[in-house]
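Chapter review: from sequence to fold.
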Amino acid sequence: MYIDGFVIPVPAGNRQAFIDHATNADSVFIEMGALRVVECWGDEIPDGKVTDFRRAVDAQEGESVAFSWIEWPDKATRDAAFAKMMAEDFDDPRMDQAKNAMPFDGKRMIFGGFVPVVDIGQ
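The token string follows.
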């Protein structure tokens, strides 16, 4: 398995727009091989003494923090999907910013790819 993780500052008033945007865009990841996409809205985001989720994305007054991840079967599937989406001839309206604009400041989003090292549960 391979995981892409995201932390995003989102204006609180854009909650439904965030859900709508994610619902549209996330279906592309599933079609390209993702096993699961989870989008979470901040509910209990405590201020830390050194750092915290809000500081990590420079969340401003009136913004919430969204925490999201994409589960892939492996890194090869993820890399192939991202390569396809970044290709010049990729044309999907769900990923077109003019048709499905991000309701948040993408410059303050943090993200990364992760290899699971412990997976306890289902």
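Two observations follow directly from the output. The beta strands are 2-11, 36-41, 63-72, 110-114. The mean pLDDT is 92.
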